[in-house]
Amino acid sequence: MKKILSIVSGNPSGSLNIAIDISNYLKTRGYEVIDIFRKYNNTDLKGIIVIKDKFTIDYILSLGEFIRHSKPDLIIVHGYSTHIWTKLALAYAKMPVKLIHVEHNTEKYTPFRRYLTRKLDKYTDKYICVSKGVANHLIKQGIDKSKVEVIYNGIDIQSFDLPKEKHDIFTVGMVARFSKQKDQMTLIQAVEYLVKEKQENINLVLMGIGKTRKKCEEYIIKHNLNNNIKIIEGNIKELITKLDVFVLATHYEGLPLVLCEAMAAKTPIIATDVPGVNEIILDEKTGLLVKENDKIDLANSIIKLKNNIDLSKSLVCNADEFIHEQFNLELMYKNYEQRIKEIL
């Protein structure tokens, strides 16, 4: 039985979810997989080994010793900057272990971390990127591009086949971490423009937690938008059935699975035209693309879908076909298993 270490940061994230999905699948295929979280386990998952990281050197040395002791055949490491410290741990362990580096986002590499990524390229047998945008960005860091491959993430499409809930007011929603990257503020201002300038009867529901939530809440109160805009917490499945349009007003992404989930729930989508996003949202086909940080462009697209039911239906139909072809879970599993077999 081949032994695999699956390593990811212990903070809840899309990359952690994908890491666990792949790990659980490989366990059913006869692999011995040890799940390792860096720093902490901020989930309710059991049976996880946590490698402490009070200081980065602490993690590198502790993981290096664990690699020596466990003697894995393969390491699969997810995410920046965990991949850098894991490769240093492998160098410290001085063991011939194969390694797959899974890159989930267009990360902002510092000059030092770019240097380390290039230097540690020799410890990497395969780079798997979740989108072409992520692959192009990673190649720019100076690694061997012949080792790079794109495998799209997948979702359990059937689990999002949910009945829509009837509601009286046209409702827009966004599910994302509150951060500068996700840019909920532009969506808030787009809805404000529609309500105040265009006298549209429209509601917005934002779901999530994060650093910029308080700023958004304060803006909503200050601008008397409480009747039209709500901020809640929960799971996308609890919200998506109540929405007429799903929006992702993000500045950059790796591959936002939340868009695939909205597609699977048969909800028309508006999203910003940025790498990663524009591999899922094909403009006027699987959704509508808008300019970054442009509340008027976003507002106009919302009204376009509000007033054109035929367009919404067409986008939903095309999107449903597209995700079944490109983003289903079984396809992702098979692609990863095939690469692992080739490497081992």
Task: Give a verbal description of the structure.
By secondary structure, this protein is of the alpha/beta class. The protein has 2 domains: 3-154 and 328-343, 3-Layer(aba) Sandwich (Rossmann fold); 157-326, Rossmann fold. Helices cover 41% and strands 18% of the residues. The protein has 12 helices and 13 strands. The strands form 2 sheets. A 7-stranded parallel β-sheet has the order 3-2-1-4-5-6-7, with helices on both faces. It has a 6-stranded parallel β-sheet with strand order 10-9-8-11-12-13, sandwiched between helices. Helix 6 (184-196) crosses helix 10 (295-307). The longest helix is centred in the last third of the chain and has 18 residues, at 309-326. It is elongated.
How much helix is in the residues? 40-55%
Provide the number of structural domains: 2
In which order are the strands of the major sheet placed? 3-2-1-4-5-6-7
| Number of separate helices | 12
Write down the overall mean pLDDT.
96
**Topology as a string of helices (H) and strands (E):** EHEEHEHEHEHEEHEHEHEHEEHHH
Distance between the termini: 12 Å
Strand content: 15-25%
Q: State Rg.
A: 21 Å
Q: How does the major sheet shape up?
A: 7 strands, parallel
In total, the number of strands is 13
Which CATH architecture of the largest domain is right?
3-Layer(aba) Sandwich
CATH class of the largest domain: Alpha Beta
Question: pLDDT under 50 segments (min length 5)?
Answer: none
If you consult CATH, what is the topology of the largest domain?
Answer: Rossmann fold
Name the overall outline.
elongated
Structural class: alpha/beta
Classified in CATH, the superfamily of the largest domain is Glycogen Phosphorylase B
